[in-house]
Write a structure and sequence with these properties.
Layout (H helix, E strand, L loop, with lengths): L4 E5 L4 H12 L5 E4 L4 H11 L6 E4 L2 E4 L3 H7 L2
Parallel strand pairs: 1-2
Antiparallel strand pairs: 1-3, 3-4
């Protein structure tokens, strides 16, 4: 697996925890950005997704808003 995976989160988002747990169980490394504290990450997430919604997962440039397990699986090689 060589995909670049980014997860935009907030500390109080239960679906963010679910996404991170899912990726970890699959052995997928990811970079996590807390958009509650990091204004630059928040702006970047909104530029990529057009929304202020977490979790936002970016896999090789493809954006998934929310925990859409089927779509995330389809983007992981």
């Amino acid at each position: 697996m060589s995909e670049k995976v980014i997860v935009y989160t907030t500390p109080t988002c239960p679906y963010c925890d679910t996404v991170k747990e899912f990726l970890s169980k699959k052995g997928v490394p990811y970079d996590e950005y807390d958009v509650a504290d990091d204004e630059n990450a928040r702006r970047e997430m909104m530029d990529k997704s057009g929304r202020m919604a977490v979790p936002t997962v970016v896999i090789d440039g493809e954006v998934v808003v929310g925990f859409d397990q089927e779509k995330i699986d389809s983007l992981l090689h």
